[in-house]
Amino acid sequence: MKCPFCNHPDTQVVETRVAEDGGFIRRRRQCGHCEKRFTTYERPEVSFPAIVKKDGRRIDYDRSRLRGSFSLALRKRPVSIDKVDMALEHVEDKLRSLGAREVQTHLIGELVMAELQKLDKVAYIRYASVYRSFEDIDQFKSIVDEVTKPAAGKKDTGKKKP
Ligand SMILES: [Zn+2]
Fold it and tell me: TM segments (predicted)?
């Protein structure tokens, strides 16, 4: 790396430190010409696929937009910010792990739905009803049935013990 002061191409690393949380590496460098020191930071580059909207336009992934979707669905619901943050992380992990350069907007919608389903059933139905813009009442009923049916194993069969 060249010196930012005199543009000399020969600089030496004199110190390397890893940040406490391991998130970046900090290096002190010294110019072999003017002997001034400067610092560089090395961080992993986190890239998300571009989002392709229904009309074909591509937009950059935007975390605040995604958070907005969660907030809207979870309005006045008893879900902590920590849990919303975790759900956001899950969606982002999945997006990154795809390794794709671009994804359709509906994929994001599906990922958000999957997280909301785990977080809060009311929020899930809210989001799903807007997002899927149900074409008929049966479709809506099936999704409500899906989230309101009792969990397996907890069902009372009504049978009496011998
Ligand atoms: Zn220099």
Answer: none
Do 119 and 101 lie in a common domain? yes
Give pLDDT tens digits for 39-67: 998 877 667 899 998 899 999 988 898 99
Does this model's pTM top 0.70?
no
Q: How far is the CA of 10 from the centre of ligand 1 (A)?
A: 8
Ligand 1 center to 30 CA (angstroms) = 8
Ligand 1 geometric centre to CA of 43 (Å):
24
Q: 14 CA distance to ligand 1 centroid (A)?
A: 14
Q: How far is the CA of 5 from the centre of ligand 1 (A)?
A: 5
pLDDT in tens, 99-139: 888 999 889 988 999 999 999 999 998 888 877 765 556 66
Count of the separate structural domains present in the chain: 2
Residue with tokens 């309101």: 148
Same-domain status, 65 and 138 = yes
Per the listing, tokens 């989002």 go with: 51
Pair of tokens at residue 127: 């989001």
Same domain assignment for residues 16 and 65:
no
89: left (phi over 0), alpha (psi -120 to 50) or beta: alpha
Q: Are residues 79 and 133 in the same domain?
A: yes
